[in-house]
Amino acid sequence: MIDALPLARTRRIGPFEVGRIGYGCWRFAGTPVAAAREKLETALAAGIDLIDTAAIYGFGETAFGEAEERLGDALADAPGLREKIVLVTKGGIVPPIPYDSRKAALIESVEASLRRLRTEAVDLFLVHRPDFLAAHAEVGAALEEMHAAGKIRAAGVSNYTVAQTRALQAQMDLPLVATQPEFSALEPAPLYDGVLDLAQETGLAPMAWSPLGGGALATGQGGPAPAARRDAVLAEIDRIAGRNGCGRDVVALAWVLAHPAAPVALIGTQRPARIRAAMRAFDVRLTRRDWYAVLEARLGEAMP
Predict the structure, then answer these.
(1) Helix, strand or coil for residue 245?
(2) How much is the mean pLDDT over the chain?
(3) Contacts by 186-193 with C-beta closer than 8 Å and gap 24+?
(4) 130 preceded by cis ω (within 30°)?
(5) 81-120 residue pLDDT tens
(6) Would 23 disulfide with which of 12, 43, 69, 100, CB 3.0-4.6 Å?
(7) Catalytic residues
(8) pLDDT band per the 50, 70, 90 thresholds, residue 2
(9) Which residues partner with 18 through β-bridges?
């Protein structure tokens, strides 16, 4: 009998119980309303209720805020849909500055997001990237003021180090509930930089962006790793996928989900069939040896 690692389907993020696969809308820019609505409804039907976007999504392709606009259009087109999802957005990236997390700027960002999303409040707002010129006390004051005003229901950070997260939390009474690092079998940095350890220590929910390594763990092309290391990881993942009768992308998601910090894996596929298929990750029988074999392939050496 295979000693499979447990893969819980849900977890709490602050006041919300969510599925551990979330849907990222960074490719929503330019999406027709009907298509955007179909993707959201497909996600919900599959058990994916956390919907992630950001003010910057769309910039460089169409326009700043375009992804939020299209998501807002889809929510307006389907009355009742907003109440069924946990809506996440991010702010603080303001090209070409590039970052502005001063109090007034963050408040303005959230208010603009609310208009684009056509909603009265964001369930979870994340500071998208650390602004080295914004004092943690000022960032914290902005988050607390927006929470008190009912504009955001919970707050967190994205791409923050452990030290930055701790420094921000020290300036706030409002608890941070989420952290969003890049994490995949090709980008295992959160295993080593303390982000996932801090999540377990404090209860922060990790929200893994790019869990498929920029798509490389599905397509076999590109990704945040040297080609030789990527191909070695894919060989291990394909071995596990063959045993489980599933796609390599499904195994890659299961690898992220297996960590005891209970990450939420954010997928961004634009194909409804792939959204549904992602949920097969919870059925993957992944052993402890499988998990470490994938990591060793990425590192290029056996664990010490």
Answers:
(1) coil
(2) 96
(3) 186/213, 186/214, 186/216, 186/217, 186/223, 186/224, 186/225, 186/229, 186/230, 186/233, 186/298, 187/213, 187/224, 187/225, 188/295, 188/298, 188/299, 191/259, 191/295, 193/161, 193/162
(4) no
(5) 999 999 999 999 999 999 999 999 999 999 999 999 999 9
(6) 43
(7) 57
(8) low
(9) 11
Q: Are 68 and 53 in contact (CB under 8 A)?
A: yes
Angle, helices 103-117/66-77, rounded to nearest 10 degrees: 40
Q: Which pTM does this prediction carry?
A: 0.96
Tokens 């923050």 belong to which residue? 160
Q: What is the pLDDT of residue 30?
A: 86
- Tell which residue, 221, 223, 222, 211, has the closest CA to residue 267: 211
Token pair of 171, please? 């300036």
Rounded mean pLDDT of 245-269? 97
Pairing type for strands 155-158 and 124-127 reads parallel
Q: Which residue has the tokens 């080593």?
A: 192
